[in-house]
Write a structure and sequence with these properties.
Distance between the termini: 61 Å
Largest sheet: 7 strands, mixed
Radius of gyration: 26 Å
Shape: globular
CATH topology of the domain at 258-461: Chloramphenicol Acetyltransferase
Length: 464
């Protein structure tokens, strides 16, 4: 008898993926948990294991197609499962797309741990060196109910939109809230008036191009680009799904967070002496003692002393979410794009442990071994461009955090001490924070605490 297999839930905030390659073809025999295709989500590539067994009669997707959880992938003849051996993994070959049938209930199938981007970071003396990024996540979508009989197209909203319930999934609701749209104002184009993310975007573009919205300071949609080919040859390069996600998250952070950046300079002469003294201990432990690793410990101590920085802002509830844990994301630059692996419980570890952890997650990023969960849950972020020669710079806050610390390149400078000029190693630091919940004085006190701790870092070597 025929059995269908649909794409299982991919996890919190992942509501679509691209099919990179197919491992099977019609006529192949599959077993439960055998990978049938490779897909790419916003943050990772992963194999999809089959939830059924038998001989494949129909492939419902093709390489290059975008799919969503609950979408039908394959149909098999289960009666042939016992008589036919499992087919070997086939070479990935694009197959013609067929008309997609209605979604079916998703079988209880576990997805293998997704891996992070398959790429190698740029050469750097510090595995934590990178540029800032954000990784906003949202709740998984719900399956849309069946459309009402004799009802097609969008349902016109009643005159009083505040009295009606918006027909939208949690993912769409969160997206609307993040870009400042009341989902009840949006007309849905789906079955029974269901509101999609595209409906929200269309509403936002229209609303922000009205004179009233522009007077209110909302950003207008940019006009179409000119025809650049008038002035010479051009080429177009489509953004990857990962790059599109970065672009969307950067836009979200830029539009939603009124940020302020404070620039400080720290004397890291003693810190560098300590780093040289203990670097072999870190190597013997399987890691590297970098400036970023040491600053992880200093920042964790600073967050304990300034708990309002270790928080997120709930706009809807008008509350500050103070976090008892200290998980710090370290932005890492790779050839494929930016990833932010999270080092957890930083305040409970000494600098040797942090050096090992930072080395490990950096290697996993290079080898595409990071899972999506390893890039979630940060309460603060650090980004380092010192290895690329950058000094002070203003990073974008890694939403939903409310602050990020940027590290620049250290330089020797002459400093007058007791009437004599002495060479000292100075490092530029930049602290960007959400001005809605932190004032300039809060940021200044936080950075003063950090720069004072950097000048006397020896105690951190033994601190747990």
């Amino acid at each position: 008898m025929p059995s269908d297999f649909a794409l299982p839930d991919l996890g919190d905030g992942i509501d679509e993926a691209d099919v990179l390659q197919l491992y099977v073809q019609p006529g192949d025999t599959v077993t439960v948990d055998q990978p049938v295709m490779e897909i790419e989500t916003d943050k990772a590539t992963l194999d999809v294991p089959s939830g059924v067994e038998g001989t494949i009669t129909t492939l419902h997707v093709a390489a290059g197609q975008t799919i969503t959880p609950g979408q039908l992938l394959i149909t098999v003849d289960a009666d042939t499962a016992a008589a036919s051996p499992a087919a070997p993994v086939a070479e990935p070959t694009p197959t013609p797309a067929t008309t997609q049938p209605p979604s079916v209930p998703t079988p209880a199938v576990a997805i293998a741990d997704p891996a992070a981007p398959r790429s190698s970071p740029a050469e750097s003396s510090d595995p934590g060196q990178a540029i800032p990024t954000t990784a906003a996540a949202s709740a998984p979508p719900q399956v849309a109910p069946t459309a009402l009989p004799h009802q097609e197209g969008p349902v016109p909203p009643p005159e009083d939109v505040t009295q009606r319930a918006a027909f939208a999934s949690p993912t769409v609701r969160r997206f609307a809230r993040e870009i400042g749209v009341d989902v009840r104002d949006v007309g849905g184009s789906g079955p029974a008036g269901r509101i999609s993310e595209s409906d929200v975007k269309r509403f936002a573009r229209t609303a922000r191009n009205t004179p009233d919205s522009q007077q209110a300071g909302l950003p207008a949609v940019p006009p179409p680009l000119p025809d650049f080919s008038r002035w010479g040859s051009v080429q177009r390069e489509p953004l990857t799904r990962f790059r599109r996600t970065v672009a969307r998250n950067m836009s979200l952070a830029w539009e939603q967070i009124p940020a302020v950046t404070l620039h400080h300079t720290a004397d890291v002469t003693e810190l560098e002496t300590m780093r040289q003294r203990y670097k072999q201990v870190a190597i013997d432990s399987g890691g590297r003692l970098t400036v970023t690793a040491i600053l992880l410990k200093i920042v964790a101590s600073a967050l304990r002393a300034h708990p309002r920085v270790n928080a997120s802002y709930d706009v809807e509830a008008q509350e500050l979410v103070l976090k008892d844990y200290i998980h710090i994301g370290v932005a890492v630059d790779t050839d494929r794009g930016l990833v932010v692996p999270v080092i957890r419980d930083v305040d409970t570890k000494n600098i040797i442990q942090l050096g090992v952890d930072l080395t490990t997650v950096s290697a996993k990023a290079r080898d595409n071994d990071l899972t999506i969960e390893e890039m979630r849950g940060s309460s603060f972020a650090i980004t380092n461009l010192g290895g690329l020669g950058t000094g002070h710079f203003a990073p974008i806050v890694n939403w939903p955090n409310i602050a990020i610390l940027a590290i620049g390149r250290s330089d020797q400078v002459p400093v007058l001490i007791d009437g004599e000029w002495q060479p000292r190693l100075h490092m530029p630091l930049s602290f960007t924070f959400d001005h809605r919940v932190l004032d300039g004085a809060d940021g200044a006190r936080f950075m003063t605490w950090i720069t004072d701790a950097i000048r006397q870092p020896l105690m951190l070597a033994l601190e747990g």
